[in-house]
Amino acid sequence: MIHYNFRKAEMSETTPIWQILQQAIIRRKKDGSNQWQDGYPNPDVVQKDIEKGQGFVLVEGETIIGYSAVIMNYEPAYDNIEGKWLTIDDFVVIHRVALSEQYLGKGLAKMIIGYIEDFALQNNIYSVKADTNFDNIAMMKVFENLGYTLCGEVFFRGSPRKAYEKVLTKLD
User: Fold this and answer.
1) From CA 53, how far away is CA 44, in angstroms rounded?
2) Which of 58, 124, 134, 140 is most deeply packed, by most CB within 10 A?
3) What is the pLDDT of residues 93-132, one digit of tens each?
4) ∠109-46-142 over CA atoms, to 5°?
5) For residues 8 and 46, what is the distance between their CA atoms, to the nearest angstrom?
6) DSSP-based three-state secondary structure for 39
7) Alpha helices, DSSP H only, in the chain?
8) Is the distance from CB of 158 to CB of 79 less than 8 angstroms?
9) Which residues pair with 130 in a beta bridge?
10) pLDDT (average), residues 135-161
């Protein structure tokens, strides 16, 4: 039985996290995408995520196989949505989801998002927001399969991004 764990990243883990993000940056380029092709994300971004307690890793045993930033109630770009969010309450933001090359196609992006939804509920937050590049078909499918609603467009570094939100059900 494979055992996965999703936990806060530690500063000593920036190198393997950055390696996973670099693989994802190369994959996006090979897919013909301009997403993540402008020097973002970079090692400084990962370091800041971890310093702020916002960097999370998916691990199999001791091996880091995935990464995501999980941010509570803060994403200035989301204030200027072209469209409308489902809620105006507290929210968790998903950014920088990336998986190790050898772990693709196993449903682990969905697993990471499921862990983030659980994290939100544990903090009494019932909204999860995310965005992705208009040509990141795989990530759009993940959001749609997990019940996220396309709410409009937001802009990062001058590029439009599809903005999604899911309203979570309160735990009894």
Assistant:
1) 14
2) 58
3) 999 999 999 998 899 999 999 999 999 999 999 999 999 9
4) 15
5) 12
6) coil
7) 14-30, 43-51, 108-122, 137-145
8) no
9) 94, 164
10) 93
- pLDDT digits over 79-98, tens only? 999 999 999 999 999 999 99
* 35 vs 135: CA distance, rounded Å: 8
Contact 167, 86 (CB under 8 A): yes
Q: Are the beta carbons of 154 and 163 closer than 8 angstroms?
A: yes
pLDDT in tens, 3-21: 899 999 999 999 999 999 9
pTM for this entry = 0.93
Q: Which two tokens stand for residue 135?
A: 């040509």
Residue 25: exposed, middle, or buried by beta-carbon count in 10 A (0-12, 13-18, 19+)? buried
